[in-house]
Each structure stands twice: as C-alpha cells, then as structure tokens.
Specification:
The protein is α+β, with helices and mostly antiparallel strands and 150 residues long. It has three helices and five strands. A hairpin with a 3-residue loop joins strand 4 and strand 5.
Length: 150
Amino acid sequence: MKRLNQKGWGLSAFLSFIVIFFIAIILISIGAQKVGIADGDHRSKEENPPSQESNVYTTAEIEKAKGYKTLVHDASSRYFADKHKDRKERLVLSASELVNAGYLESLSVAGNFCSGYSIIDIKDGVPQIQSFVQCGDVYMTEGYDFSLES
C-alpha cells in the first residue's frame, strides 16, 4: 500500500487555522459595528426615529404636572361640598367627571393629556381626600391605579 505524503497539514494545524479565522471574523464584525459600517438595520443613525424614552422634560413641565394633583384635590373638595356633603361612604371622583361638572379644566403638559382621580373617605364626618394624577410619561403620582380613573 502506498503511503500518503506526510509533509501536508495535520488535523491540529487545520483546526487551529479554523479557530483563528473565526476569531478574526468576529473581531472584524465588532469593529465594523463600532465604526458604523454595519449597524444591523442598514440605515444611518440619523434616520432612526427618536424613541419615546428619550423625551426629556424641563423642571417647569414636571412641576406643572405635579401641581395638577393640587388642582384635582381642590376641585374634588369643592365638588364634594356642593354635591355629596351628606355622603357617608367612600367616593371616587375621576378628573373627567370633575371636568364635565365644570369644577376643573382639562389638564395637559408637554403635549401629554393628564388624567386623575380623587378618593374621598369619610372619617368621623370629615372627608379625607387623596388625589392622584398621571400625565403621560412626564409625571405620575406614586400609587396611581389606572382602574380608578374612569
């Protein structure tokens, strides 16, 4: 039987070459993404639309949204005194109900519509009012429950 030429590549040299080749391809693709040659969706970064999470609101806009909590609280207090002063059980007033009754104007800040509600509990004949507001992604009162706003 004829012997093969023993001067060619061995299996270990061939596998080493394959590993080095794949490492080089990985490094080239990472470098291409960093430089911006290959960004995955074949569009330049300027063509990508800004995400909603990139909205940055000014301190004045955030403070205005926080101030709506006081407006909802005051409107709820007036509405309760006018319409439900003899009530003995819990009452939930939505901001839309207060707007429809004329006790509150529509609320919005930085292009975001604001909604809210007040929870009125009666303790020893005195109404205890907790108000909550939500203005899109500008501001939301801690403990806000979306199921109570309608």
